[in-house]
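Checklist before submission:
- one chain only
- standard amino acids only
- sequence pasted in full

Submission:
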Amino acid sequence: MDPVEPSPEFPQKKGDAVSKDPIANIRKLLKPGTAKQKIPKPETPEPKTTRSGAGIWRTAALLSFAINVLFLALILWVGTRLFHFKAAVVEPLLEGVYNAVGQMDDVEVQTEVKVTSNVPVAFDIALQRDTIVTLSQPTRITGAYLSIRSATFSVDAPSTIDLPIGTQLPITMDLTVPVNTTIPVELTVPVELALSESEMQPVIQAIQDLIEPYKQLLEKTPDCWQMLLWGGACPE
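Returned file contents:
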């Protein structure tokens, strides 16, 4: 007879008793409930996180949070300073310049101008008048006609007459005197000038037109965080 080969060994599960009798083992496998047992799945090893890696991630998260907080605080500080700068400097300065330039149209300049010059004069003077002249030296008149009347005699004859110094003679002047000279002039002239009627008016208007866009842009910018975020009114 051929030797009987030993029965094959089945893989044993930890905790199950395996008999040396194959028939007993077959019966045990055919028992109800045995087929429903699940074969355990191989366990997948979970990745292990080292302590150094977790510390790095925690430090990076804290550092990122701190940077965000500092950045937010910086934005709040800069924004607040800009709001104060606008209210204290930019608005008064721009409004003041715009209004001052606009008021220049109503300005009237009143001053005094001193004039110092030599004025040339050229004209003719017509003299027609009766006057009395006094002789400054003895004067002889020839070809005069002498007429003397008295109770005893009368004389009517040409003669020569000598007039002494200081003799006053009535005369009639009728002549034209040419005048050509230079007269020095020194006087103070009051001047009153309205800028709106002067050549500066286009310059004033050009300055206003230059400032107007910046003034409108400044009026549209918010004055506080409430107005910037939700359009609310700024606190007093």
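Reviewer check: Residues 7-15 have pLDDT under 50 and may be disordered.
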